[in-house]
Amino acid sequence: GKDKELIRDSWENLGKNKVPHGIVMFTRLFELDPTLLSLFNYKTKCGVVPECLSSPEFLEHVTKVMLVIDAAVSHLDDLHTLEDFLLNLGKKHQAVGVKTQSFAVVGEALLYMLQCSLGAGYTAALRQAWLNMYSIVVSAMTRGWAK
Ligand code: HEM
User: How far, in Å, is the centroid of ligand 1 from the Cα of 96?
Assistant: First the structure.
């Protein structure tokens, strides 16, 4: 429906420049919660955000995140096919010390990135469409924390 159209149209250009947009998102994430930086075990090489954002391992993670979003956008009609992948991805994040509450902050950072790049295209309807998709991704990842 309309939600899927809004997401696909807005991702079309964004998805072509994953790393720069991912950097905007993670810069915002660390502004909102600087303690998240300490969860990256390669952080010793980049104690502060600007340095961290130019470290290859870190940019790889940014790319990984953007590829997961890309996969979700491509699977809007059958998001359930990503469930096992997302559950395992959740498990990996639990193992590195991420708390499920942090996904709310990641969501804020995602919306911030969308707002920055879409400008006037960032409407209430678009924001809600993205939040809906993001909450499906997060709830699947969160199942990875279950005992
Ligand atoms: C792996 C941290 C959010 C996707 C990792 C790793 C860390 C990490 C430390 C392992 C090292 C690495 O691969 O770089 C975090 C933190 C997050 C976060 C602190 C925010 C609170 C996300 C989100 C996604 C994501 C939202 C995608 C929706 C991935 C992927 C991997 C990964 C695909 C690789 C997993 C594998 O090795 O199979 N993350 N992450 N991360 N992360 Fe995240």
Answer: 9
Nearest CA to ligand 1 atom 21: 102
Nearest atom of ligand 1 to the alpha carbon of 92? 35
Q: Where are the beta strands (DSSP E) in 16-110?
A: none
Is the CB of 86 within 6 Å of ligand 1? no
Domain count, the chain: 1
CATH number at residue 125: 1.10.490.10
Q: Note down the domain range covering 96.
A: 2-145
ipTM (interface pTM): 0.97
Q: If phi over 0 gives left and psi between -120 and 50 gives alpha, with beta otherwise, what is residue 99?
A: beta
Residue 134: Cβ within 10 Å count: 19
Among candidates 111, 104, 102, 109, which has minimal Cα distance to 130? 111
Distance CA 114, CA 104 (A): 15
Read off the pLDDT of residues 5-55 as tens digits, 9 standing for 90 and up. Answer: 999 999 999 999 999 999 999 999 999 999 998 888 765 566 667 677 778
The CA distance from 32 to 42, in Å, is: 20
Residue 89 CB–ligand 1 contact under 6 Å: yes
